Amino acid sequence: MSPQHRLVVDRIKCDGRGLCAELLPELIRLDDWGYPIVNSESVPVHLLPLAQRAVEDCPVLAIALRRSQVKK
Ligand code: SF4
Prior knowledge:
alpha+beta, Alpha-Beta Plaits, two-stranded antiparallel ribbon, 21% helix, binds iron/sulfur cluster
């Protein structure tokens, strides 16, 4: 097994400014109201630094990277 990471958004906290989608358009797009729609697949390793930055830069700490063990 190896660690996988997924992005999750707290829809209560999120204020829909869309910064995360600007930082990581490969995995996050915005709906018609500006709220993020996150790709539920595991974050590819090469995108992990950008995903981490999206987590850190969210002004209301509404997005997180969750680690999970996935069988190969
Ligand atoms: S940066 Fe944070 S507050 Fe802004 S849309 Fe993304 S999750 Fe929501």
